[in-house]
Hints:
By secondary structure, the chain is of the alpha+beta class. Helix content is about 25%, strand content about 10%.
Amino acid sequence: MLYLFGSGAPNRLTVGFSFATASPALDRCSRDEQENAVRTAFSGFGGEAPRLLEAMSEADDFYFSEELRPYVTRNQAAGRHADLTGS
């Protein structure tokens, strides 16, 4: 998933790329390796994705982190629920 949202500062856009991986070791890799993993996961995406991926290398506040998502069954999803993320 690709997330775009304003940060409250003019001329600034916060971008989030979210993708699944079976390797928790990616969190301990270098920034270059993490950027390459993001580019690989989002290769072939159209729209603004290529431009945003290119700008990723220029970001002075690059942040890469694991996100934990609970498994939700169809019955559990029928009501209200909240996603919890690790920090």
